[in-house]
Specification:
This protein is an alpha/beta fold. The chain is built from 16 helices and 16 strands. The model has no long low-confidence stretch (mean pLDDT 94). Bound molecules: iron/sulfur cluster.
Amino acid sequence: MISSLYFLGGAGKYKYEAERLITAFFPSERIELCFDSEPKGDGWVSLYADDEHLQAVLSDGDRKQLSLPSSKDGGRDELLLCGLMYDLLKEHTGISMPWGILTGVRPVKVIRAAYDKYRDRAGEYISDVLRVSKERQATANKIISAQRKAVERLCDNSVSLYVSIPFCPTRCSYCSFISSAGNALKLKGEYLKLLLCELDIYRELIHDCGLTVSTVYIGGGTPTVLEPDELSLLLDGLARFDLSSVIEFTAEAGRPDTITEEKLRALKRGGVTRISINPQTFNDDVLKNIGRAHTAKQVYDAFSLARQHGFDNINTDIIAGLPGDDTDSFHYTLERLRELSPENVTVHTLSLKRSSTLFYKREKANISGAAAMVEDAARLLESAGYYPYYMYRQKNIADNLENVGYCKSGRECLYNIYMMEELQSIIAAGCAASSKLVDGSGIRRIVNYKYPFEYISGFDKMLDGRAEQLRKFFTRSI
Ligand code: SF4
């Protein structure tokens, strides 16, 4: 058992990546990090770096050691040292990580950058230095090629707009989002009023800085927890923006138990072109296990109602590794999805975060089956004509896997691509919303207060100086 990670010589500066990588191998262990002290006993890994060489040692009864000359480039040395540790841990545990030493949220972005930098030699770099498996490399390649058209559609001076509705009818047991249910729903009215004020600030800013809006995304939470008149109020507020250049307008209608004809009409009237209706599973027992408070039949009913109201671009989310699910019942979910034939399917892998109630009952989740489920999803969806178009990973994700968005031909969600690949600035309004300012020099984030009560009570303080801050960024970067 490995319980400590030692950093010797100058290796301490690689602590962040090294810790994330060792945690991926031992997700439920607490690994002690030790600096400036020599390893004692057994059950440790040590990393050493100086100007001349890099070395990783693993001791657990037996002692194994790997070393390499330093490349004399800090960024590359970090990867090389993590690679040495990866090889030792792989041999020690018998586990191969699908994404090799990549532990971050956006592996496709890293692989895209490798193609830009190494051109013909990129494949070698991705396999040999990053240790990404051939299968994941192939998936990343498909995604990069699926994203090409979306990238071409990006205009200079364009931004996307994100609007957060942080309320849900009840809280799902696996949820780690900032979303309030129960008594907090009483705050909806006050929240909406202030959200519209925040949006007004951004509307003026977009106009004054000569920006255009290319996509709008109303997320949550569950935006359709709003009553029809509240939804209309929000959509009327958004209609005050110049939306003439918007090519995609999404609203999450994730929980089928919140969807009604009146709400669908309000969304349609407000210009929404794409919605999400999320089954997560078509197995009623699993739905009960995760506290979704709706049935599979409600998903079919909501889906058919949305089609009747003219929604021809629908996403459905499902999750691999849910408690009570197994590979057969997950396959059943996939078959039902194929019949339903949504334009997008997003296959999530269960990620257990401390802020979810399921984290504390994690032995009930079928985490060990998640890899087979994800493979089954890829096989079945690709044979049904879908292809992967975006991907991201989360902390504590089962089997170190990923979340993959699949789409039918030409139905990529542009917002998902722009946001996940950090290709465009996103102006975000509402609770826990994070605006991302992207320019040639990097990415800056401006984060709003997390919870509705904070957002309401601290609204003026939160937005103090915000317009000037954004104005400065956009007038400088255009
Ligand atoms: S519907 Fe979505 S946001 Fe709401 S509690 Fe469930 S997982 Fe969380």
